[in-house]
């Protein structure tokens, strides 16, 4: 990708002579008899080479090289195919004989053109394909590379752009009629009008690679040839729908992905530089011929009718360099190159700054191909979703290492950044390490501690049979939140075997005066491989995940394999976990002299003068207030109300104001106002049932009504009788 490559760990040894020679003859369209005649040898001698019964003498190697139109070195090393025979080309699937039309790959519509979704799906796939025998993590690297000028021209020549252009032109002509065409048309126009092309490459190392035949069952065919097929390596795998690979093509505005795989299991006697490309376009008509949609970039297969179908080929080092597919070493794994990467979903995430104003100029905000922005969003997503997979402790090793970098024509734009879970998720990382190191406690009594609890998941019997298979004990970890690095407070991250965060939820109905915390729920193999029914829990929860793998709940697979009510077991697990969190974080109510000095200075409960014995409706009094500043800069308060004895209680309006040195106090609007205990909120007013002596309410201010930053102000809250005017 334009940077100096690390030295290889070994010299390529090549494949066995017989299979290599047989393939060269097939590619050149020649028979064993024809080669024997040219070499002035018997056909039996050539057959013995092919079957591996013998090998040619060194002097004969030179004659074989001449006959195949290559050099002697290629025949000796056999690390690549000869240049003779059928050249690498594009094969476009012909239109259906019955006239049917596919106007895009439906699987791609399951996901947005979002680099954060891409990171989640591709990193999950790499985790699922990690080689576990050596105990090492899978290493994943994301490289954004913007090409311009001569570098762009050379790359287009390498992918035979002139052969592709008529197909893109045909799609552009009908772009106004369907979505995929509009995306492709915009991608081509951006490349020509702005003279640039963004490549996004995903490399993994210590993974299985795309093993298997080009067409028969196997990982290669599942990724390159088929849709909705998932062939995972273990029971704790994240994917199950076969949809995740579609994010690769969805992230390409040109619908084009190139692939280079180093195999963990040899295929055709080879392991390195197995190369193929796949193009996803809608139905189109070019020069009077109709084409169904997909196309493949590869070596024509001589066994296919007319040698038209393109299959993978074993490329040489020069070719993979020109295609920006060169790998760092010979470790098994796969490199996916997304051609024309864009991040449409990133517009919403970067359209405004935290204070609500626009960031950058209008043109910058609309650039979905800014590599610096995409770099930042990739790092954010990887740290948020895979912090647990990157965390180790005690005897437990990390499963994953991830880095992100950005280049322009081979020059560094953003230096390679290793994603550090202790920086991205410090509190949760601390909690998981404490669990691995066996330093958790039963109850939080000091800062920095991690409390652990077991939470039961009662697994149902399959096939709709009533009863319980067994109880799996999930592990709940709770610790105090650490600054703003963790993001939103009081959240629970739930995960299973591959340690990717599946659920991110708010813990509801927390006690008053709860310190900010973070929680982690480990289920299935994540709770420990020796945990009872860990594999069964993995299978059950995997079936409860939708294609996005971002929650557990009712799915069609769960209904078919278990029952329509099976999801209630998951709801019960969540309820148990939330109850345990509330118990762990609850603390005694502070006396008036305790608590944060800074927060006390920032809060004012405006006292009311002592009233005479009421002769009419009694007026409730605000006598306690607990408040925090939310992630969005809003005030979040819990108010405690005492009510004098009386036959009738006057309704009151809670009023939030900012304390200022002079002039009237600016009044803040409520984004949320609800009764918690002993009262109800109706149209911004609190109403109380007769005989109530104490009540609680909760309020959240509307940030848009704040005239200044919350951190620069002090809050005044009071209750006003009537309508509060």
Q: How would you describe this structure to a colleague?
A:
Helix 8 packs across helix 9. The longest helix has 19 residues, at 567-585. The protein is built from 21 helices and 27 strands. Strands 1, 2, 3, 4, 5, 6, 7, 8, 9, 10, 11 and 12 form a twelve-stranded mixed sheet that branches. A five-stranded mixed sheet has the order 13-14-17-15-16, sandwiched between helices. It is α+β, with helices and mostly antiparallel strands. The N and C termini lie far apart (66 Å).
Task: Indicate the low-confidence ranges by residue numbers.
Answer: 1-12, 232-242, 351-365, 590-595
Give the % helix: 25-40%
**Biggest sheet details:** 12 strands, mixed
Shape: elongated
Q: How many distinct beta strands?
A: 27
Radius of gyration: 32 Å
The helix count comes to: 21
Q: How confident is the prediction overall: mean pLDDT?
A: 83
Distance between the termini: 66 Å
Structural class: alpha+beta
């Amino acid at each position: 990708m334009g940077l100096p490559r690390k030295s290889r760990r070994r010299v390529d040894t090549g494949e066995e002579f017989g299979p290599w020679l047989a393939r060269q003859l097939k590619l050149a369209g020649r028979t064993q008899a024809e080669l024997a005649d040219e070499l002035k040898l018997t056909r039996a001698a050539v057959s013995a080479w092919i079957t591996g019964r013998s090998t040619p003498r060194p002097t004969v190697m030179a004659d074989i090289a001449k006959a195949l139109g290559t050099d002697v070195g290629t025949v000796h090393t056999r690390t690549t195919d000869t240049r003779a025979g059928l050249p690498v080309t594009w094969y476009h699937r012909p239109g259906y004989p019955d006239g049917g039309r596919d106007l895009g790959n439906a699987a791609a519509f399951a996901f947005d053109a979002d680099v954060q979704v891409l990171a989640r799906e591709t990193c999950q796939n790499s985790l699922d394909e990690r080689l576990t025998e050596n105990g090492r993590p899978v290493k994943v690297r994301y490289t954004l590379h913007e090409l311009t000028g001569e570098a762009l021209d050379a790359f287009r020549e390498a992918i035979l752009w002139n052969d592709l252009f008529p197909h893109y032109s045909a799609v552009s002509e009908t772009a106004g009629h369907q979505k995929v065409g509009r995306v492709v048309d915009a991608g081509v126009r951006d490349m020509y009008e702005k003279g640039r092309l963004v490549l996004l490459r995903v490399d993994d190392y210590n993974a299985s690679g795309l093993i298997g035949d080009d067409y028969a069952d196997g990982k290669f065919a599942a990724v390159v040839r088929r849709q909705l097929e998932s062939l995972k390596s273990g029971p704790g795998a994240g994917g199950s729908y076969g949809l995740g690979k579609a994010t690769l093509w969805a992230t390409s505005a040109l619908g084009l992905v190139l692939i280079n795989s180093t195999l963990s299991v040899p295929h055709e006697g080879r392991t390195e530089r197995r190369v193929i490309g796949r193009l996803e376009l809608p139905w189109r008509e070019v020069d009077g011929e109709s084409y169904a949609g997909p196309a493949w970039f590869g070596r024509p297969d001589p066994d296919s009718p007319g040698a038209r179908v393109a299959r993978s080929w074993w490329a040489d080092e020069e070719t993979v360099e020109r295609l920006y597919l060169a790998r760092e070493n010979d470790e098994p794994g796969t490199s996916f190159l997304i051609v024309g990467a864009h991040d449409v979903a990133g517009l919403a995430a970067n359209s405004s700054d935290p204070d609500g104003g626009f960031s950058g100029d209008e043109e910058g905000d609309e650039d979905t191909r800014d590599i610096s922005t995409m770099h930042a969003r990739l790092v954010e997503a990887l740290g948020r979703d895979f912090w647990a997979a990157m965390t180790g402790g005690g005897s437990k090793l990390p499963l994953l290492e991830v880095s992100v970098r950005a280049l322009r024509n081979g020059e560094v734009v953003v230096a390679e950044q290793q994603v550090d879970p202790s920086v991205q998720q410090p509190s949760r990382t601390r909690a998981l390490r404490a669990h691995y190191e066996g330093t958790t406690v039963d109850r939080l009594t000091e800062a920095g501690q991690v409390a652990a609890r077991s939470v039961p998941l009662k697994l149902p019997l399959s096939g709709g049979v009533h009863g319980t298979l067994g109880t799996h004990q999930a592990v709940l970890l709770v610790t105090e939140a650490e600054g703003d690095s963790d993001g939103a407070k009081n959240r629970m991250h739930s995960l299973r075997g591959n340690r990717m965060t599946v659920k991110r939820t708010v813990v509801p109905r927390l006690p008053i005066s709860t310190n900010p915390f973070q929680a982690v729920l480990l289920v299935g193999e994540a709770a420990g491989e020796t945990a009872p029914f860990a594999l069964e829990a993995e299978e059950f929860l995997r079936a409860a995940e939708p294609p996005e793998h971002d929650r557990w709940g009712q799915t069609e697979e769960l209904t078919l394999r278990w029952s329509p009510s099976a999801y209630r077991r998951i709801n019960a697990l969540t309820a148990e976990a939330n109850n345990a969190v509330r118990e762990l974080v609850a603390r005694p109510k502070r006396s008036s002299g305790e608590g944060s000095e800074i927060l006390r200075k920032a809060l004012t409960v405006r006292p009311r003068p002592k009233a005479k014995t009421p002769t009419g409706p009694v007026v409730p009094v605000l006598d306690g207030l607990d408040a925090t500043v939310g992630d969005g800069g809003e005030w979040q308060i819990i108010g405690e109300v005492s009510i004098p004895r009386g036959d009738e209680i006057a309704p009151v309006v809670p009023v939030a104001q900012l304390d200022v040195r002079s002039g009237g106090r600016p009044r803040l609007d409520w984004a949320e106002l609800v009764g918690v205990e002993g009262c109800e909120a109706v149209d911004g007013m609190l109403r109380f049932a007769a005989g109530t002596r104490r009540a609680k309410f909760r309020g959240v201010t509307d940030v848009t009504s704040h005239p200044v930053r919350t951190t620069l102000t002090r809050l005044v809250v009071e209750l006003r009788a009537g309508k509060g005017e």
